[in-house]
Input
Amino acid sequence: MSSVLNVPTLQVNVARKVFPAVAGRAANHVLDAILFDVEAGSFVAITGPSGGGKSTLLNIIAGLDSAFDGDIRFSDPNLNVAFVFQSPRLLPWRTVRENIALVLPPNDPRHANIDELLGRVGLADAVHAYPEMISLGMQRRAALARAFILEPDILLMDEPFVSLDDPTAQGLRQLLMELWSRRPTTVLFVTHDRQEAVMLASRVICLAGTPASVVQDEAVALTSGERVDRDKVRAEQNRIFGTA
Amino acid sequence: MQHEAGAPFGAIRIGRIGWTLISLSTLLALWAIAAAIVQSRYLPDPLTVVEVMAREWQNGDLWRNIVATLIRVFFSFTIAIFVGSAIGLLLGRHPLADRFFDPWVSFFLNLPALVIIILCYIWFGLTEVAAVLAVAINKIPNVAVTMREGARSLSKDLIEMAQIYRFGWWKTLRHVTVPQLAPFFIAASRTGLSLVWKIVLVVEAFGRSDGVGYQLNIAFQLFDVPMILAYSLAFIAVVQLIELALLQPMIARTNRWRR
Output
């Protein structure tokens, strides 16, 4: 048992990722020599400029893209993986509750947790609403609930709070921290927003360059109390990334 | 929930039914006036047509022929929808197959209905199978083209979501793929029904000994216009009823999630 605990939950090795040339556009070499391990229970933010290959990396880790050189190794091939996408990707023709229930097998005991979880993410009144009839912020909450109902071993998140107004995004970040502290899991969180990365993560990996590679990999030295303090977050952000 | 969604549509429907009644009564009145002015046996007044309809209903011919036609409509429509959908999905998902078969689809789309009917009767004899097949072949290319559009527009985002959350093929088909194809399926069904019932009449006129088309052909040979109108109007009513009782509720159901 103890040897299993020492194995990282996830070992990422993407030696090379090239999008082949299509219809007049040249081949695009996006990722190069990306090598890192993720410990069980850690919250890792992957940050870097927009269009810099972060989402590509996350898709490779999720197994959605298998055309790359290298390998992705999980400590156990049966690990439960959940993905919160950049857009909520709910099924518009199913209600909020049906969208959550669909990710569970038919007779799973976790069905009993759905209503409580929907209450916790603030969707108690929208349980039977169709996704197009609720706001984007609420759709994002439903997408979070869909990921957490699985009680995932690994949670992959791709800019899950982008294109929301600041208070809504901040509310969702707090909701994520609350859900995460209630049930800690390994998180890989992609964002272009450095402040968001520092506020949420225990470790920040920074990608840069063309093709992108890891230019920085730092632990975030903030207690959970300090994370709600904007000044403390900004100071830590400056320590890691400089004041530029 | 059901009630909230239904209320605004209910209000519109009442208005629409009112307009339909006004519009149709005007048409009926114009017909009666024209019949009164012309005074010809080739333009009977509405009352004469209704009398013929009642007589044909009472001796059982009207119902028997309409049922015979509806059975043919049902089978050819079902075959066309299933075969056409299968072909359409195949072409929509596999670009190579699409490139190869696209000229075939164009060919069959532009093949006149009459040619297909004649050839089917020559090749397979004046049989029920030939009749149903001829109607189905006429309709299959239309269904295939519509469903091909549907298959091309399937969302890659939702397929990826289903893959991550391990939906498996059945759950993916039922909750992700089929709902996306539903609008295309309905479009194919609506145009399908209106096309199929017109072609069925031609097929019946050519080579069957019952059905509305057969009866119209007999009436044509006798220049019996009241009979022609009686059968046409009765059949239009039945088709409209099917549209309102089956297709409209199906459309409302598949659209209930839309904003």
Notes: Confidence is low (pLDDT under 50) at residues 1-7 of chain B. The two ends of chain B are 14 Å apart (CA to CA). The domain at 44-254 of chain B is CATH 1.10.3720.10 (MetI-like fold). Chain B has two domains: 1-39, 44-254.
